[in-house]
Specification:
The protein is α/β, with parallel strands linked by helices and 511 residues long. The protein has 18 helices and 25 strands. The protein folds into three domains: 196 residues, Methylglyoxal synthase-like domain (Rossmann fold); 112 residues, AICAR transformylase, duplication domain (Cytidine Deaminase, domain 2, 3-Layer(aba) Sandwich); 125 residues, 3-Layer(aba) Sandwich (Cytidine Deaminase, domain 2), CATH 3.40.140.20. The strands form six sheets. Strands 12-17-16-15-13-14-22-21-23-24-25-20 form a twelve-stranded mixed sheet, with helices on both faces. Helix 4 packs parallel to helix 8, helix 13 packs parallel to helix 14 and helix 17 runs parallel beside helix 18.
């Protein structure tokens, strides 16, 4: 057992620090600290030795040089029981440090700020912190190193159970966490300083394993979840999430947060199969479910308002895999928790910004997330007939939906003053005309008329045939990016049929 007698603490994030150092003091552990952390320890009523008193060397250069000292790193790297190491330590007055508690300057938070200056970014590059963490982690056979405040309580509990010592397996686990953290930290710095055309010249991905999964897309594939998924989603009920559940619920959350009005989205295999917006979630559910009453079986349902008993009763009538909401009201929980396997997920925050990554043979593709929204002011009317207010409402609704449908994507929708809904969705076909045919067929299967509807296409109509097919199905307006060499022919086909068409100038391919 490696008993802890001396601790070095230097933290930027002081969450839980006061309680932690009081526990260490109860063990009789000597605490060494730096700058603001030392002040916080004193304010917690715990004795502390300033780092300059410990090393015999003053902090200098605005705090840039304070822990880069042999008495610090010698105390961390000295191999206990090694005769030569211990003799060198004794000769130079180096005392062993058994516990290191460090979290780093908030570089990532700093550079995420709008218009951050290079000076501010540079000043938030931590040097001493990563150095101490790496020294302690290298010598984890003897040294306990804590980089995450979430580990304070488990470390204290283990020390109480083991006579002020931690177990080798714990020290090894914490060391791995350190190297993952410093790797991710250095990667963020390299990405910021090496940006070229808005993207990093070197991409480093270092994510902690959040949980093991039973299997991947199929039972013969191993899988795990990495990263901070838990900061965005909290499971309240039901069996463990699967690989496919996580893909689907992420797609559903990204879609439903696009809308301001109460909205329900039903997702199957990452594609929307029905979306509705209305004054209440209960009404929005009716509109979404009516689009397709077969595909939602075993699907994912997402809402953008607290889920109440009214919609819970309706949802409970069909089999669903996952329901996502910003909150579940008590009566709704009572209803839905009767289904023991139904996963209930609280969405804690909107989907994260940043790069979207995708693995390919020999590398990774990276791109900015498709967060571009289109407003009424962005619409360019290219036909003789101007859109009605209802058509504008429906087109903007359909445009937000089609952005989340796999290409080639076609969405038929309708709207009035208080509601908007999908009528037919065609996804993932090799031909845009095929997607149109599927959307029309799905509407027919659901018993929904497309007369007076609008049609949205994620990319331009390359030929007039796509627009003609939509008009023959009942559409009176179309929204598309434009940009085809045959735009004039497509517009002429719309004008000939008294159909209103707008261009957005934005394409939303989704592969």
């Amino acid at each position: 057992m490696s008993q802890i007698r001396r601790a070095l603490i230097s933290v930027s994030d002081k969450t839980g620090l006061a309680e932690f150092v009081r526990e260490l003091h109860q063990f009789g552990i000597e605490i060494i600290s730096t700058g603001g952390t030392a002040r916080a320890v004193k304010e917690a009523g715990v004795p502390v030795i300033e780092i300059s008193a410990f090393t015999g060397f003053p902090e200098m250069m605005d705090g840039r040089v304070k822990t880069l000292h042999p008495k610090v790193h010698g105390g961390l790297l000295c191999i206990r029981g090694n005769v030569e190491h211990e003799a060198a330590a004794a000769k130079h007055g180096i005392k062993p440090i058994d516990l290191v508690v460090v979290n780093l300057y908030p570089f990532e938070k700093t550079v995420a700020q709008l218009n951050v200056s290079l000076h501010d970014a540079i000043e938030n590059i931590d040097i001493g912190g990563p150095s101490m963490l790496r020294s302690a982690a290298k010598n984890h056979a003897s040294v306990t190193v804590v980089v995450d405040p979430a580990d304070y309580a488990p470390v204290v509990t283990e020390m109480k159970a083991n006579g002020r010592a931690t177990l080798p397996a714990t020290r090894a686990r914490l060391a791995v966490k350190v190297f993952a953290t410093t790797s991710r930290y250095d990667g963020a710095i390299a990405a910021f300083l090496g940006k070229a055309d808005g993207l990093p010249s070197t991409l480093t991905v270092s994510l902690p394993k959040a949980q093991a999964l039973r299997y991947g897309e199929n039972p013969h594939q191993q899988a795990a979840l990495y990263g901070d998924f838990g900061k965005y989603f909290q499971q309240l009920h039901g069996k463990e999430l699967s690989y496919n559940n996580i893909l689907d619920l992420t797609s559903a959350a990204e879609l439903v947060t696009e809308f301001e009005d109460p909205t329900v989205a039903i997702i199957k295999h990452t594609n929307p199969c029905g979306i509705g917006s209305a004054a209440t979630l209960r009404r929005a559910w009716d509109l979404a479910y009516a689009t397709d009453r077969q595909a939602p079986f075993g699907g994912i349902i997402a809402v953008n308002r607290p889920l109440d008993a009214g919609i819970a009763e309706a949802i409970a009538e069909i089999f669903s895999e996952v329901i996502i909401a910003p909150e579940f009201l008590p009566d709704a929980l009572t209803i839905l928790q009767k289904k023991k396997n139904l996963r209930l997920i609280r969405q804690l925050a909107p989907p994260a910004a940043g790069l979207a990554l995708r693995s390919v043979t020999g590398g990774v593709l990276a791109q900015e997330r498709d967060s571009r929204l289109v407003s009424a002011a962005d619409l360019k009317v290219v036909t003789k007939r101007q859109p009605t207010q209802a058509e504008r409402h429906a087109m903007l609704f359909a445009w937000r939906v089609v952005k989340h449908v796999k290409s080639n994507a076609i969405v038929f929708a309708t709207a009035d003053d208080t509601t908007a809904r999908t009528l037919g969705i065609g996804a993932g076909q090799m031909s845009r005309v095929d997607s149109s045919k599927i959307a029309v067929w799905k509407a027919g299967e659901a018993g929904l008329s497309l007369t007076g509807s609008v049609v949205a296409s994620d990319a331009f109509f390359p030929f007039p045939d796509g627009v003609i097919a939509a008009v023959e199905a009942g559409a009176t307006a179309a929204i598309q990016p434009g940009g085809s060499v045959r735009d004039a022919e497509v517009i002429a086909a719309a004008d000939a049929r008294n159909v209103e068409m707008v261009f957005t100038g934005i394409r939303h391919f989704r592969h």
